[in-house]
Design a protein that fits this description.
heterodimer, A: 215 residues, mainly beta, 5-stranded antiparallel β-sheet, globular, B: 309 residues, alpha+beta, 6 helices, 12 strands, 19% helix
Chain lengths: 215, 309
């Protein structure tokens, strides 16, 4: 049978409270942020990537099962500061934050910003990263309400290509995401194929009301 | 499922510097039209759900010895299939800034993109019936069988098969076998009804093979100098009867033939595509959405024979 179409990153599915559009929060990124995937190759920040907030007040990529997972604050849904990143000379339109780009120093008018939707605001759709752990609709149904990690895909740099590390699905309370259901997208053509789409919500996040231990 | 379109998502269109904006044309899959209508029978739907029911007659009469009673025949209900309308919908969110500042309408024409996606979704959902045709997790109606099964139930008892017993790759020989199988399919009363093959449903990988089989006037195998090609000459299949289903992409080898049996592939529109647009004033985000409601299925498994290679 065939694989399902791969769609990048975390996608907004629906809100907790029937809000028609995802909430948007603008968060800053450190000047010249250089993120390397699992300490290896450099990675950009793209729409669909998960981010975590550092104690410095800046956002960075939220690592998953490829390294030590961090608590995710939100998902990038756009580039802030009017969709522009400082290119060293001026603010240039961009649809991503290039690795080690946006070197604005202390010129905060040129600060790199992301438009982020907090993960606690609703349900997200994301692709599974293998087609061997679960192969039928029934086996995917059986892991609804399990927890799972996300994983950034080594080898996809400079894109992080975040997916659900579906082999990690378990009732372990420390995994960051809760599987909320199987996406009702028509794109779930073949459950024995790759990139089955599931709906997830936050299990451990970074909001004050987020659990720190998970369920 | 995705996020609003911000100016960063269409940042190349914010200044008039482009020569071409490349995107999928508004025409759909093959030859500018949806593929689904080529192998589904479309009708309207008046209610939230509608049912199809098979009723089978007694079949044959019996000889009556003098003075004895006539034999008694029966009428039985058979396959019962319920069509429940589902809503399929999609919207695109776009910030006012992206709309105001985008210089290329074709890059931010949410209506065109959503309309394309809706039409492609129709073709995908139609193709899913074929992709899952042998999957016992996707059954139609009270028979509890998938679209293609070796044990489709008969109302008066027994079963019949609408799968090719020994799957064979596309060829004149496979078509002669399928022709005989179609002719031998039992009607609702369990008696051979003599159905005829009307269409070939195939994947894109098989298109050229089928064209050679269907369009050759003589037998397309080496050494067959004078033998007519029955597929072309007597089954009267033409190129237009080859329905290539591009979104049937879970296989490269499976195919099916459609017969002239009634009430086969049914597509019932409860509501055809409808567009709505509205604005979230607080966030100044425009929304463009389309939705449709339909039910699809198969009320009569005799309408197709599947080949599972």
């Amino acid at each position: 049978m065939g694989d399902n179409r791969h769609i990048y990153g975390f996608r907004w599915s629906r809100s907790w409270n029937s809000t028609a559009v995802p909430p948007v929060v603008e968060v800053p990124v450190a000047s010249g942020l250089a993120f390397t995937l699992n300490g290896g190759s450099p990675c950009d920040l793209n729409v669909g990537d998960p981010i975590t907030m550092l104690s410095t007040g800046y956002a960075t990529m939220s690592e998953g099962a490829e390294n030590t997972p961090t608590n995710t604050y939100g998902i990038i849904i756009g580039i802030g500061n009017h969709g522009k990143v400082f290119d060293g000379v001026t603010m240039a339109p961009n649809n991503k934050v290039p690795n080690a780009g946006g070197v604005y120093g202390t010129n905060y008018e040129f600060q790199t910003k992301l438009l982020v939707s907090p993960i606690d605001s609703g349900y997200w759709e994301c692709d599974c990263d293998d087609k061997t752990s679960y192969t039928t609709y029934a086996t995917y149904m059986a892991i609804v309400n399990y927890n799972v990690s996300h994983v950034l895909t080594t080898g996809s740099e400079p894109k992080a290509d975040p997916m659900l590390d579906i082999s990690s699905a378990a009732t372990t309370n420390t995994l960051k995401w809760r599987i909320a259901g199987i996406s009702d997208s028509l794109e779930n053509k073949d459950f024995s194929g790759l990139y089955v789409k599931l709906l997830v919500r936050s299990n451990i996040g970074q909001q004050p009301w987020s659990s720190t231990t998970g369920i | 499922m995705s996020s609003p379109v911000f100016t960063s998502d269409v940042f190349h269109t914010l200044k008039p510097t482009l020569d071409e904006v490349m995107t999928d044309s508004d025409a759909d899959a093959m030859d500018g039209a949806m593929v689904m209508p080529r192998y589904f029978d479309e009708t309207g739907m008046k209610d939230n759900y509608e049912d199809d029911l098979e009723v089978a007659g007694p079949g044959f009469a019996s000889e009556k010895p003098e003075g004895q009673e006539m034999a008694v025949g029966s009428i039985r209900e058979g396959l019962f299939v319920r069509y429940v309308a589902r809503t399929i919908a999609l919207r695109v969110l776009m910030t006012e800034e992206a709309i105001e500042d985008g210089k290329y309408e074709e890059a931010i024409d949410a209506a065109a993109f959503v309309r394309k996606a809706m039409r492609r979704s129709v073709d995908l959902d139609a193709a899913l019936m074929l992709a899952r045709g042998f999957n016992t997790s996707y059954v139609f109606g009270s028979g509890g069988k998938p679209l293609w099964s070796a044990t489709q139930p008969l109302a008066q008892g027994g079963t019949y098969s609408n799968t090719m017993a020994t799957p064979a790759s596309p060829s004149r020989a496979s078509m002669t076998i399928l022709r005989a199988q179609a002719r031998g399919l039992p009607g609702h009363d369990g008696i051979r009804a003599g159905y005829r093959i009307t269409k070939i449903l195939c994947t894109i990988e098989q298109e050229s093979d089928w064209e050679g089989i269907v369009m050759s006037t003589h037998a397309p195998e080496a050494g067959q100098f004078n033998e007519i090609n029955v597929v072309n000459q007597t089954m009267n299949l033409t190129k237009d009867d080859i329905v290539v289903v591009p979104l049937w992409d879970t296989t490269t080898t499976n195919y099916a033939v459609k017969t002239d049996a009634d009430n086969g592939f049914r597509w019932k529109w409860r509501r055809r595509m409808r567009a709505d647009s509205w604005k979230e004033n607080a966030q100044q985000i425009q929304q463009f959405g389309m939705s449709m409601r339909y039910a699809r299925g198969c009320s009569n498994p005799r309408a197709s024979i599947g080949v599972n290679l």
